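If you are new to this repository, start here. Below is one unmodified record pulled from the training split, so you can see the exact layout before writing a loader.
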Amino acid sequence: MEFLSILYVVFPILYLVFILWKFVDERRDQGCYILDYQCYKPADDRMLNTEFCGEVIRRNKNLGLQEYQFLLKAIVSSGLGEQTYAPRMVFLGREENPTYEDSILEMEEFFSDSIGKLLARSSISPSEIDVLVVNISMLSVVPSLSARIINRYKMRENIKVFNLTGMGCSASLISVDAVRNIFKSRKNVNALVVTSESLSPNWYSGNDRSMILTNCIFRSGGCAILLTNKRALKHKAMFKLKCLVRTHHGARDEAYDCCIQREDEQGRPGFHLSKTLPKAATRAFVDNLREMTPKILPVRELLRFMIVSLFRKMNRSSTKGGQKAVVNFKTGVDHFCLHTGGKAVIDGIGKSLDLSEYDVEPARMTLHRFGNTSASSLWYVLGYMEAKKRLKKGDRVLMISFGAGFKCNSCLWEVMKDLGNGNVWTDCIDSYPPENIANPFMEKYGWINNEDPSTFKVPPLEEKVSQI
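And here is the target side for that same chain:
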């Protein structure tokens, strides 16, 4: 009887301890870590310099003087330099009539380079990949691009596969979110995220100004990211995901229509960017920050902001016309990884978050060197920070991205160790930031602004360049 009495007391306690241990154990394996990532740098023969860009523009027979002047203004103010990359079919003169093989070749070159390098450097076999997430927004093929990767690298039959399209420039954080949710329900998982964009079938050859802009800022690129929740690999991790917030304004017509793939009046397909885009982006950004801010900032900063805001509201008459209370994001964030949607986008986010030129430098330099590479842009910005040896153990990095739909996604990473290894920036990082990031388009083609519409004729490129 005494034994039974002890058993009745001990068993519930042991059971409770087991339940608590199980809960803690499961929570410990729900972390999301980046083991490594590899950004893609296309071959040098795909580099767009000023003179070749002028040749590509001149090949478009649908453009007139006003379109030339508009393009010159857009390119000069874009923030892009002369070392960005375009699809190979542009250099073959097929931008108006790309083939199916052009699209596949663009993706295959990226897959072969970045995925191969990533797996080799991390010593992870393709058979050890449990989850594959591929996001290429504007190219959907059969078999899928994810199937092509599985076939190329002979991955396992039971691999979990997600093939995302139409997610736009914010797709890489959507992919990370998908992986994070899988990690919550499965232990000891390795995941590979592949993010890029296919420009070959989407180069616009018409004269609609809202669609020409995409040719000015979007460039070829991509990134492969290896993530895990394996406890045994935690010491090898570069980053740990702290939180991730997704905001979607697709229910609002003005947000849905501001960034959309469509045909122009002549039936030429392209990507339309409307004048309401800045407004839609601002709304999504504000809503996203409203949810993200309490997750990433210390309580003292939140209290300070609340007190200052309340004080200003109570004294409106005396503070009329004064500055609004501003949240100091630097109290909880060390580095800002901003989407390179364009110079205006970087300027706008920088102003909204009260960032210094040092804070926005990685995004500006990425836009200058690689252009807007869509969903992979964030990882080139992160690579710049790493190459500059800015990322130290314990630092916190805030990523902010925008995408069609309209979406704003953000996340916070914690740096797990001092970083400074070689990456896609290695061969040029010492020359950044340059003293002057202005491109030479105005110097070479500024004469276009002085032309008379009634007498203007497009001369051979060599003739005009030699006159300058």
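Two things worth knowing about this chain: Residues 2-28 form the longest helix (27 residues). The chain has 17 helices and 13 strands.
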